[in-house]
Design goal:
With 322 residues, this protein is mainly alpha-helical. The chain is 52% helix and 2% strand. A two-stranded antiparallel ribbon has the order 1-2. Helix 8 runs parallel beside helix 10 and helix 10 packs across helix 13.
């Protein structure tokens, strides 16, 4: 009697198990197939992403070995999205180009790929959205941004890499320069960040091609200021931009007189520094830097400068969704 009464229950149980197996197995196989399909995703999307890099009008992306780092970005973006449970990947907005690499992947890159990554993806994000507008006017600025904003978008680990490998980075910039049709914002930031007085001849050559581009004069002004070039520090232009009566991110008019004076001082700066054996650029110390948003970071960036306030980043734990 007991066995007879249990028969309907067992039938229903077997029915539900069969349904679960019927729907569960395809899902399991589909998920595993998608994870295995990383190479196909990269191969299918690589041409469109590389083409996208050529469409940028505000920053420069190195040509040499660019496919290597784009492939890395696509691969890690694809896997992270799957692990996070995102089943629909948008292929239209090129999200992989702004995807932050994990610490493990970043540390595994060679220097060329790290440089390309830094020029392609800046990891620093401001909390205050919409406040990142670069100054654009007829003036020549002593800083590209307002006093409460950083010069660059690079994170601490990116900055540490760039400064630590300054000599090699200059070589990469030299290689990149011949391919440049314009000087992008990221290249201008890099020239100032690393105080690249070695690139003054290239900047002057670009000024000859675009004499009305005041941002190029701003680059020269900031390089000479950070290099503590005494001739510039004794000039009226320095007094107006950086003197005690000025304020951070002050400017001067982009007159022919000011432009000529800046070019002449830049030529003298290069001539003087070029003959100094083993010249080391001064260390430019920032007083403060706003905290950044951790959105998109998969692991905490552990390398930080002592003069910048530290903000703890919570590291999310991902599990593969099967």
């Amino acid at each position: 009697m007991i066995l007879t009464n249990c028969t309907p229950f067992l039938k229903n149980l077997l029915k539900y198990i069969s349904i679960l197996l019927f729907w569960g197995c395809p899902l399991l196989c589909f998920s595993q197939y998608k994870l295995k399909d990383t190479t196909k995703f990269v191969t299918n999307n690589l041409p469109a992403y590389v083409y996208r890099l050529d469409q940028y009008k505000y920053k420069n992306i190195p040509v040499i070995d660019r496919k290597s780092i784009v492939s890395t970005l696509l691969r890690e973006y694809y896997i992270d999205e799957l692990v996070s449970g995102n089943e629909t990947l948008s292929k239209d907005r090129y999200y992989a180009l702004s995807h932050h690499l994990s610490a493990k992947t970043f540390n595994s890159l060679n220097n060329r790929d790290r440089f390309n990554y830094c020029m392609m993806t800046q990891e620093f994000y401001m909390q205050n959205c919409g406040s990142l507008g670069r100054f654009k006017s007829t003036g020549i600025y002593g800083a590209f941004y307002r006093s409460d904003l950083p010069l660059e978008y690079w994170s601490d680990r990116q900055l540490q890499f760039l400064h630590k490998n300054r000599k090699e980075i200059i070589g990469y910039v030299d290689q990149m320069w011949s391919d440049l049709k314009f000087i992008g914002d990221n290249t201008k930031d890099l020239l100032v960040e690393l105080i690249m007085w070695e690139e003054i001849p290239n900047i002057l050559q670009q000024i000859e091609l675009s004499p009305q581009d005041n941002s190029l004069y701003s680059v020269l002004v900031q390089i000479m200021m950070r290099a503590k070039f005494t001739t510039f520090e004794a000039s009226k232009i320095y007094e107006k931009i950086y003197g005690p009566e000025s304020y951070i991110a002050s400017q001067i008019a982009g007159t022919e007189e000011n432009r000529t004076a800046i070019v002449d001082m830049a030529k003298k700066c290069y001539a003087e520094l070029d003959v100094i054996p083993n010249y080391n650029v001064p260390i430019y110390v920032r007083q403060s830097r706003p905290s950044y948003s951790s959105d998109g970071l998969k692991e905490e960036l552990v390398t930080r400068k002592k003069d910048w306030p530290i903000k703890k980043v919570q590291t999310p734990i991902f599990k593969i969704k099967l």
